[in-house]
């Protein structure tokens, strides 16, 4: 096995630079994707934005809309398992 091969969890260990939208959730200039997603879930649970019937679904509020973009309206639901899709737009 080559020493240059990346592990399957490489993206979880790498620190990404957070833009202003992500900084509002993480309060960190740099963070791993795991930490970023964890902080977003803490916010969702604190604000009770998780759908009570379908726990994997999140109801978008105005602060979360800064991450999801204008295509996702406030009050609509997104799949929480796909938060990485929205995070990658803001983490470099």
CATH C-level label = Mainly Alpha
The largest sheet is: 2 strands, antiparallel
Give the percentage of residues in beta strands: 5-15%
User: What is the residue-mean pLDDT, rounded to a whole number?
Assistant: 89
- Counting helices, strands and paired strands, the structural category is alpha+beta
Q: CATH topology, what is it called?
A: MDM2
Radius of gyration: 14 Å
Give the topology string: H per helix, E per strand.
HEHEHEHEH
Strand element count: 4
As residue ranges, the low-confidence spans are none
Read across the widest sheet, the strand sequence of neighbours is: 1-2
What is the architecture at the second tier of CATH?
A: Orthogonal Bundle
Overall form: globular
End-to-end separation in angstroms reads 29 Å
Q: In words, what does this structure look like?
A:
With 92 residues, the chain is of the alpha+beta class. Helices cover 40% and strands 13% of the residues. It has one domain (10-87): Orthogonal Bundle (MDM2). The protein has helices at 10-13, 20-26, 33-46, 62-68, 83-87; strands spanning 15-17, 30-32, 57-59, 77-79. The strands form two sheets. A two-stranded antiparallel sheet has the order 1-2. It has a two-stranded antiparallel sheet with strand order 3-4. The chain starts with 9 loop residues before the first helix and ends in a 5-residue tail after the last helix. The model has no long low-confidence stretch (mean pLDDT 89).
């Amino acid at each position: 096995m080559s020493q240059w091969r990346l592990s399957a969890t490489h993206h979880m260990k790498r620190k990404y630079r957070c833009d202003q939208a992500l900084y509002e959730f993480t309060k960190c200039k740099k963070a791993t994707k795991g930490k970023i997603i964890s902080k977003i879930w803490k916010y969702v649970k604190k604000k009770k934005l998780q759908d009570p019937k379908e726990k994997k679904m999140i109801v978008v509020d105005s602060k979360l809309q800064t991450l999801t973009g204008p295509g996702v309206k406030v009050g609509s639901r997104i799949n929480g398992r796909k938060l990485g899709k929205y995070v990658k737009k803001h983490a470099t």
